[in-house]
Amino acid sequence: MATIGSKFVERVAQFGPEKGLVGVVAEPAELSNQIKPAVVILNTGTVHRVGHHRMYVSMARKLARAGHTVLRFDFSGLGDSLSQLSDQPLLQSNFADIGHALKWLQTTRGVSRAVLIGLCSGADHAILYGFSDTRIVGLVLIDPYVPPTTRYFIDYFSRRLRDVRNWRHVRLHKSKLLRRFFEHLSQTLRREGGPQHLVYQGMNVRASLERAYEATAQAGVKMLVICTGRHHAPRQTYREQFVSAFSRVSFETSLRLEFFKDADHTFSSVKSRTELDESVTRWCETTSFERSPFQLSTTEEIAALWSA
Question: What pTM was computed for the model?
Answer without folding.
Answer: 0.83
